[in-house]
């Protein structure tokens, strides 16, 4: 189907973003929409509002092709918060109109300080919440905090400052790969199809690059989200809606 006809039929790509306060959700969405501005928030009647709940739509004027929903307050871990998120996912997954359906979920888990362990809310979500066919991508945000831990470990082991700085990223990633977070996700009833690390002092790549640069982007997140979408129409909608990863657009065009 022609991309213009897909947008005419479906409209916009809808994403639920879940995560604790200060997990970096807004920063990620700003990078995806290539902006530093805050999103506009609309209720079900299309009216603008300030504070929002999970049903409200967040739209960045720089890329109105994306609709985001934010699980505000889910980090509290209470039963009511979990029930709201689960009810929203179930309701949206059963929508007969594809324009109203939820198309993917981005789950942000910060790795700074004491946040590295899963909360009760996160344990419950991954153990009990059935998202049906809606794919989940887990983003381990603020991953650069683990570099600081690795740097300290390397210094304690007798490495020089220069060597410790050079080896910190590799040590952090090796430790994470064998850590409890990934083990937990692999052991849950329905493991997420994709995860990756996000460094907020760096772009979302292994190569360090200042996030404050104008050309910083979320290319890997875009690429991996596209890969997890089984529905070819939704995949093409997502690929044509995003504006920051030309390589994904070209790859999708070649595969058609």
Provide an overview of this structure.
With 256 residues, the chain is α/β, with parallel strands linked by helices. Helix content is 42%, strand content 15%. The protein contains ten helices and seven strands. The protein has helices at residues 3-10, 25-32, 79-93, 120-128, 144-156, 161-177, 180-187, 219-228, 232-241, 246-255; strands at residues 13-19, 40-42, 57-60, 63-70, 104-110, 136-141, 194-197. A seven-stranded mixed β-sheet has the order 2-3-4-1-5-6-7. Strand 3 (57-60) and strand 4 form a beta hairpin. The chain is globular. The termini are close together. The relative contact order is 0.15.
What's the topology here?
Blueprint: H1 3-10, E1 13-19, H2 25-32, E2 40-42, E3 57-60, E4 63-70, H3 79-93, E5 104-110, H4 120-128, E6 136-141, H5 144-156, H6 161-177, H7 180-187, E7 194-197, H8 219-228, H9 232-241, H10 246-255
Parallel strand pairs: 1-4, 1-5, 5-6, 6-7
Antiparallel strand pairs: 2-3, 3-4
List how many beta strands DSSP finds: 7
Question: What low-confidence regions span 5 or more consecutive residues with pLDDT below 50?
Answer: 199-216
Q: What is the first-to-last residue Cα distance?
A: 10 Å
Computed structural class: alpha/beta
Helix fraction, binned, reads 40-55%
Topology pattern, helix = H, strand = E: HEHEEEHEHEHHHEHHH
Mean pLDDT: 79
Number of helices: 10
Question: What Rg is obtained from the alpha carbons, in whole angstroms?
Answer: 19 Å
Main sheet summary: 7 strands, mixed
The percentage of residues in β strands lies in 15-25%
Sheet with the most strands: spatial strand order? 2-3-4-1-5-6-7
């Amino acid at each position: 189907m022609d991309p213009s006809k897909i947008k005419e039929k479906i409209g916009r790509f809808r994403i639920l973003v879940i995560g604790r306060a200060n997990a970096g959700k807004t920063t990620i969405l700003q990078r995806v929409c290539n902006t530093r501005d805050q999103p506009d928030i609309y209720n079900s009647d299309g009216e603008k509002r300030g504070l929002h709940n999970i049903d409200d739509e967040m739209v960045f004027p720089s890329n109105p092709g994306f609709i985001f929903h934010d699980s505000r307050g889910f980090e509290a871990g209470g039963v009511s918060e979990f029930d709201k998120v689960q009810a929203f996912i179930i309701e949206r997954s059963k929508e007969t109109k594809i324009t109203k359906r939820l198309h993917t979920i981005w789950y942000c888990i910060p790795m700074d300080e004491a946040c590295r362990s899963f909360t009760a809310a996160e344990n419950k979500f991954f153990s009990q919440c059935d998202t049906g066919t809606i794919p989940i991508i887990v983003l381990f945000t603020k991953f650069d905090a683990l570099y600081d831990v690795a740097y300290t470990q390397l210094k304690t082991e007798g490495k020089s400052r220069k060597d410790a700085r050079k080896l910190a990223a590799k040590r952090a990633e090796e430790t994470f790969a064998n850590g409890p977070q990934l083990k937990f996700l692999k052991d849950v009833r329905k493991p997420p199809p994709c995860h990756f690390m996000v460094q907020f002092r760096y772009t979302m790549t292994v190569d360090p690059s200042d996030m404050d640069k104008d050309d910083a982007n979320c290319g890997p997140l875009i690429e991996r989200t596209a890969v997890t979408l089984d529905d070819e129409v939704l995949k093409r909608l997502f690929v044509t809606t995003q504006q920051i990863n030309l390589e994904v657009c070209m790859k999708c065009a070649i595969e058609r």
